[in-house]
Structure formats: C-alpha cells, structure tokens
Design goal:
There is one protein chain. This protein is an alpha+beta fold and 143 residues long. Helices cover 47% and strands 25% of the residues. Strands 1-3-4-7-6 form a 5-stranded mixed β-barrel. β6 and β7 form a beta hairpin. α1 packs antiparallel against α2 and α2 packs antiparallel against α3. The radius of gyration is 28 Å and the shape is rod-shaped. The termini are far apart.
Amino acid sequence: MDYMIWVWLIVFVVAVVLEASTQNFVSIWFAIGALVTLLICSFVEIWAEIIIFSVISLVTLIFTRPFVKKLMERSERFTNVDEFVGKRVKVEKTITKYENGEVKLNGIIYQAMLMENETESIETGSVVEVVALNGNKAVVKLI
C-alpha cells in the first residue's frame, strides 16, 4: 500500500496549510495524527491506519487543546484604549450635542463628544464616564 504514504502526506500538508491560514488551532491535531500515521503506514493495514489517525488526532485534541487555549488567552494584550473605557474624568470644556468639548485623560486633553441619547449638554467641572473612544475623541456619558 505505497500509495497510502502519499495520502497521509497530503492530509498532513493540507492540515498544516489550513492551520497556518487560520492560526486558531483548528487542524493541528489532525496534522499530528497524519504525521504519526505517515511514519507507520508501511507496517500496518489501511483499517489500522485509519484507527491510528483517528485515535492520535482525538487524543491530542482532548489533552492538549485546553492547555493551548490557556496559553492563547494569556497572550491577549490590551491597548491604552481599553484602559480608558469606564474611566471617570472631569469635563474641561462644556460638551453639547452639537459641539465637542474636552476631557482630561491621564493628564492629556482629549476632545469629547456625548453618547447618543445623552442630555443636551454637560457643563465644565462635571464628572463623566468614558464609554468608548471614537478615533481621537472620547465618547462620554454623565454619571
């Protein structure tokens, strides 16, 4: 069954290419199963190859996916934008529905605009909460 070497090589290559294109650990488990099966396919029957491929793929999926998932979550990075959302700041210049005002975030003055459905205006000195950043403008609401 020399052609099975090619079958398992193709399965391995397709799984690796698919994994490289998604980067979400979708098919790496099948690549591992195909690689192991490729190494031993000359010594066993086709039905055994299929069982070996299935078992190896399933075992690696079950036992390594939770570990890999934890590693991927740790690598998640937050930006300074994430730091600003939810922060309470003081209005430096009155904000109206029709004109941007200013707030001071971490010592830097940002233009500020009202969140939709917010009051007509927020006066200087009021405390507001940053709900989002829209470009270089802070979107705020009165608290």
